[in-house]
Recover the amino acids of this structure.
């Protein structure tokens, strides 16, 4: 087949979404405001179609655009997960935005464009394509965080995110320029060859550290996490749900591809850095979450800790470790979207309730919602037999297999600490005196998402651990032959 057609076929889902985003933008201009809800459902449908359009990996056409993008099983699983997560985030947003009078077509456009950027991130195999994907995703989310222009919290959150995001973009570009300067190429394959040919230059190591710092910011790993609590609290809750799920997965997949495909020869240099980032994320996430009273800030520090657990797999630097990271992120995606669907049901007549104390006695006023919160928090804590236990088990075993015993011990200890604040919320739900009852919303997509997530984390022991592990193994194995 002629190469331009191969290239187009490779990025067909992203091209489809980009064109669809422009069409939705034009439709939003001409349609009445009350039709925006239909545009939201259309956006979710377009994302599902994009997931279906992701091509199966073909060794004969594994790369496109002069090897700037890769189409392997790793890319396949990441793109599908990103598209489906974005679709769910769109679906659970309609009720909230309708109640808050924030239902605007530009939100749908921004989610679609952000999904394009994230899909490019998980497929990129060139420094330039990495930057394009990261910035397209980031610029869209900056705007989404400030969607509620009348809210000082939302405006402040978006401004902090934008300023610190610009700093991380500077790190990314400076790191890329150093890597290019010392290897003479922007393509991962050439960088890998340079990193494995003799003693790497100190400039290449510095470039890698700057690059790691920039991506660590995108996944809110410590010590680059400072934006996370304020943005999670200030952004509209559906935006927080989206931000906590899909961009984190895309960032972790990008982390994996860069370290494994571009810098296999520098593992002795990047493994200690990743060790420190993983350990700091777990410790800061666990200790800081204990004192939180806002449920969204609690989830912010929870996500910081979970990124630390996922980074344990990457730090191992093995196929088993990368497989554990992929499985962890897929399971984290389900748990996080489920929790935020539950948070979206915390509404009273005067508006959204965000304090943990608002959940007091929920078991007496809304027993169904109480069971959902309980199942999802127990899974986030990693308590067996919930599926979150197996997510941590995979990465801890990878660390032990690679001799990272201290990191694994830190992971176990911080998991115990994290269990305390998850159980504290559950205690508030089941044993505290009832607070004012939440309004029963008629938005079925939110309740269906919450119930589906709770069922997955509960029934995962029997039905889903195997499939998650199989997908993760296939994704990881597709990178390591290229690295070798």
């Amino acid at each position: 087949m002629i190469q331009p057609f191969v290239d187009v076929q490779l990025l067909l889902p992203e091209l489809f979404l980009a064109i669809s985003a422009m069409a939705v933008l034009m439709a939003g201009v001409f349609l009445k405001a009350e039709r925006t809800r239909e545009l939201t459902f259309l956006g979710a449908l377009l994302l599902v179609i994009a997931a279906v359009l992701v091509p199966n990996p073909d060794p004969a056409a594994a790369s496109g655009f002069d090897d700037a993008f890769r189409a392997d099983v790793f890319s396949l699983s990441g793109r599908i997960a990103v598209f489906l997560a974005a679709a769910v985030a769109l679906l659970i947003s309609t009720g909230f935005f309708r109640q808050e009078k924030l239902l605007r077509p530009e939100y749908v456009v921004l989610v679609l464009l952000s999904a394009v950027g994230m899909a490019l991130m998980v497929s990129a195999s060139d420094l330039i394509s990495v930057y394009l994907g990261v910035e397209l995703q980031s610029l869209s989310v900056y705007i989404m965080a400030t969607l509620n222009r009348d809210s000082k919290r939302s405006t402040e959150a978006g401004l902090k995110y934008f300023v610190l995001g610009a700093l991380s973009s500077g790190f990314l570009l400076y790191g890329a320029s150093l890597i290019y300067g010392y290897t003479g190429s922007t393509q991962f394959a050439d960088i890998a060859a340079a990193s494995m040919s003799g003693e790497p230059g100190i400039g290449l190591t510095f470039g890698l550290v700057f690059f790691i710092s920039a991506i660590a910011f995108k996944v809110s790993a410590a010590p680059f996490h400072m934006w996370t609590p304020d943005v999670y609290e200030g952004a509209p809750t559906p935006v927080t749900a989206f931000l906590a799920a899909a961009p984190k997965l895309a960032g972790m997949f990008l982390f994996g591809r860069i370290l494994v495909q571009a810098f296999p020869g520098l593992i002795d240099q990047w493994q200690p850095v990743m060790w420190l980032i993983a350990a700091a994320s777990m410790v800061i996430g666990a200790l800081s979450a204990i004192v939180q009273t806002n449920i969204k800030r609690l989830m912010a520090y929870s996500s910081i800790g979970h990124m630390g657990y996922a980074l344990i797999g990457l730090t191992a630097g093995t196929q088993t470790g990368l497989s554990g990271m992929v499985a962890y992120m897929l399971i984290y995606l389900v748990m996080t979207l489920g929790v935020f669907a539950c948070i979206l049901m915390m509404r009273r007549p005067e508006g959204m309730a965000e304090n943990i104390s608002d959940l007091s006695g929920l078991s007496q006023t809304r027993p169904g919602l109480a069971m959902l919160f309980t199942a999802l928090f127990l899974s986030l804590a990693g308590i067996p037999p919930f599926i979150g236990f197996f997510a941590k088990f995979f990465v801890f075993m990878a660390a032990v297999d690679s001799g990272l015993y201290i990191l694994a011990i830190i992971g176990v200890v911080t998991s115990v600490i994290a269990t305390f604040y998850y159980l504290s919320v559950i205690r508030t739900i089941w044993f505290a005196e009832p607070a004012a009852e939440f309004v029963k919303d008629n938005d079925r997509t939110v309740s269906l998402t919450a119930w589906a997530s709770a069922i997955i984390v509960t029934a995962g022991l029997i039905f889903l651990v195997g499939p998650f592990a199989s997908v993760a193994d296939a994704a990881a194995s597709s990178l390591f032959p290229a690295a070798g």
The first strand starts at residue 63 and ends at 64. Residues 152-183 form the longest helix (32 residues). The two ends are 28 Å apart (CA to CA). The mean pLDDT is 88.
